[in-house]
């Protein structure tokens, strides 16, 4: 089940001028399933990415990093290729060869250099990529290229996702309108830096050289790096922003008044997409927002938010709609702030003040906690009482279905 | 269910001269249940403890620390009192009062000073301790004091444990024989520093002043601090070693030949008790040993062992007996060794070499992995290939029953 996650509607996903998608069925893990996506960008486009920090990062992640580093020198990035059903991770030298062969094959079909291609894989780790199936299906994906294939693209990158994830947005700037559309996938092995997750956003804005890379990191930190489902940082996570520059809006610098507008729109879209992953979290029945305020630094707020969001005991209590809120205090206590004075800590569950000055609020009634716990969307607010920094994370509960899904995933 | 955890037999639990236990039913959370334990020590005994690092540590933990710091000044520690059914944590100033009142009441019954008592609580967090029930039941526990009550004591400290945990051992030293007996409790909220767990070991050895405290930390690090069930460090964890000095063995210094023998025996007993907690881990169907070798430092080996032991994806794969071993590589990769060269990493599942030089071992057959995964006890060995440090941890799988137990715990 999902938590307040409507199905994306095809007519609400706006095409981005200069950006095309083509889908094919390569039969990588299962037959008769969209599992291959090719995306192409018009000449002059810009691409930036943020990738997993996992040291066992997948071969395609390594190739993406290399090709983005060469961007410009060997011709700009002009195409992306994504397969599901196999992560091409923990596959050693052969995995690298396979990722490169995928680029070579697509480059031939599109008349580009292999270095102009970014490859992505998602699925099972430690199994060889069935490279022949992918190469054989690439021409069909290329033949399918079109601007209006967002929904098909979102479906083609799904693994344990129960539904496709996509969203669109338009923002007006002094220089004109900018359109943004994005897709993402992910439901388990989700944790900052980053989730088992792929996210792609295309926009028709243009950027002066060097701007997009920092912007992509900023957007990622406020969206995909602020969600956790199970605390497992995957080998394949990638978040990509692609800017075709086909609208009248070209942003020259961070001081440009349009910069902030477009950055905020990208952040809002990325956050919406990231939250869709949580709403479709493996086995999720609750969507939980953890707001930590009153910290000395953002990073210590993040430590606390992660500890709470990550605790199996907190997550099973949410699943049970049981206000067993001492478990949240315990998580705050072990989050790693060694000089935390718990006597200054306050906690609210929704609008209910539960913990006051480090202990149970004398006015707290179990029935009030129970009422809030019944809701499908719950906010936990924690005030550390030692500064003005804050950080918000999003997570879901831990249910029987999480265990079922992950115990059965490969069978 | 439990994993290879036989019930303790009363006649195998050896009395420790100078150490007595008394049990009562205080009705703290449920009626007709042993939930109060008093332990007394003969004059001249020594006591040392290791406690949770959780900043939201329970009131009794704070009182224990204070009373151990006063040890000697106000008279030595002579008694311990443990209640289950309520953790007296997240209870603020009132909780501290309750912990102290418990000491005052027991001191009156035993003709001691309150500072000679160590209090312990375990159970639900954030609810007021029913202090009247405890005080009312103390005389019954005191009346019950005897040397032969180890099994009853082990039963009296259980919470979500499905069975009592106790063990005994005798070690011969050049100075004579030393007897050690211990009990512990814990099944969830289990993670280093420390688990939701109480552990008490009594021995008739004696120690020169100052020796027992460091020894207790050493023993804890090799036992209770090397297990994890769900990664939640509790508010109440306490591990206590009590030495009555009633045997002929009195250890004068760390250079004493008997020191190492007694230390090793204490470590072996504590490890056995700690492993009992994992074997009775909430919902556990598998007992898993994570051996990390070839690290630069013990602490980096520990990071890797914890990441693997803690990963819900790894743990659900063990539950499913599914050799989805890429999940282990992913956990190694995100454990936090930022300069890890994965090309030097090897991994074995039992006797099967799965990952070779960072990739899938070409000789690895899925059927071999499957065979090992079927066993109730599984060892994962990871060689980081960058040094000679090593660390071992013990954990269990993540099953449907874990979710059930923790979703239903309070109802």
Automatic annotation (TrEMBL), chains A, B:
Record's keyword terms, sorted: Acyltransferase, Amino-acid biosynthesis, Arginine biosynthesis, Autocatalytic cleavage, Cytoplasm, Multifunctional enzyme, Transferase
Active site: 196
Annotated catalysed reactions: N(2)-acetyl-L-ornithine + L-glutamate = N-acetyl-L-glutamate + L-ornithine; L-glutamate + acetyl-CoA = N-acetyl-L-glutamate + CoA + H(+)
GO biological process, one term: ornithine biosynthetic process
Positions that bind substrate: 159, 185, 196, 282, 406, 411
Root EC class: transferase
Location(s), subcellular: Cytoplasm
GO cellular component: cytoplasm
Main location: cytoplasm
Xref: InterPro entries: Arg_biosynth_ArgJ, ArgJ-like_dom_sf, ArgJ_beta_C
GO terms for MF: L-glutamate N-acetyltransferase activity; L-glutamate N-acetyltransferase activity, acting on acetyl-L-ornithine as donor
EC number(s) from the headed UniProt entry: 2.3.1.35, 2.3.1.1
Protein family according to the UniProt entry: Belongs to the ArgJ family.
UniProt protein name: Arginine biosynthesis bifunctional protein ArgJ
